[in-house]
Design a protein that fits this description.
Blueprint lengths: L5 E10 L6 E5 L12 E6 L2 E13 L3 E6 L5 H5 L5 E5 L20 E4 L3 E10 L6 E6 L2 E6 L5 E5 L4 E4 L5 H6 L2
Parallel strand pairs: 7-12
Antiparallel strand pairs: 1-2, 1-6, 2-5, 3-4, 3-6, 4-5, 7-8, 8-9, 9-10, 11-12
């Protein structure tokens, strides 16, 4: 399994018991969806290694208590601390309407209600306070904030996102 075929679920943050149990901090708005998983991929030195889950349950609000098969001691558990957790993309819950996963819309076309076709989404920058569509328009990069008020419609069948951006925003990138 390659990382490209998976999504980041969270990180193992600490040991829970002397029997090899671990606590993972999940990167999700719906941690209860992952309460009873059978297996998970752990990133060990750049390789995704499958681990079978004997038992998993939510611990507090965003922590998942995990007991893996063949991890029986504190030392076994210690070796997995700070490791990233991944699951196959097909395990992501399906989103509908104007909600989408960032990886899902790469390659979609952006069409602005006033401007017309803007270009193709080639990346989503989520390292800023607000995530930004990075759009390629014939070699010119156009940045549009991923603001719920701007997103009019997500058309998955046509791979198009319709937006309504403030007047002049797109033109800023084309002048000059």
């Amino acid at each position: 399994m390659k990382k490209d075929d998976c999504f980041y679920l969270g990180k193992i943050v600490k040991k829970y018991s002397f029997k090899g149990e671990l606590l993972a901090k999940l990167d999700t708005d719906e941690p209860d969806l992952y309460n009873n998983i059978d297996a998970i991929f752990i990133d060990l030195r750049g390789n995704l290694v499958p681990f079978f889950v004997e038992k998993s349950q939510l611990h507090k609000s965003d922590l998942l208590r995990l007991k893996f098969e063949d991890i029986e001691t504190e030392a076994d558990a210690e070796a997995l601390l700070k490791s990233d957790l991944y699951l196959p993309l097909e395990m992501l819950p399906k989103l509908e309407g104007n909600k989408f996963y960032f990886h899902e819309v790469i390659g979609y076309t952006i069409i602005d209600l006033n401007f017309g076709e803007v270009g193709i989404i080639n990346n989503i920058n989520d390292s800023t306070a607000q995530a930004i569509f990075e759009i390629d328009r014939n070699g010119i990069e156009i940045l549009i904030p991923m603001n719920d008020e701007f997103i009019v419609k997500v058309d998955r069948s046509k791979k198009v996102i319709h937006v309504n951006t403030p007047e002049g925003l797109i033109d800023l990138y084309l002048e000059g």
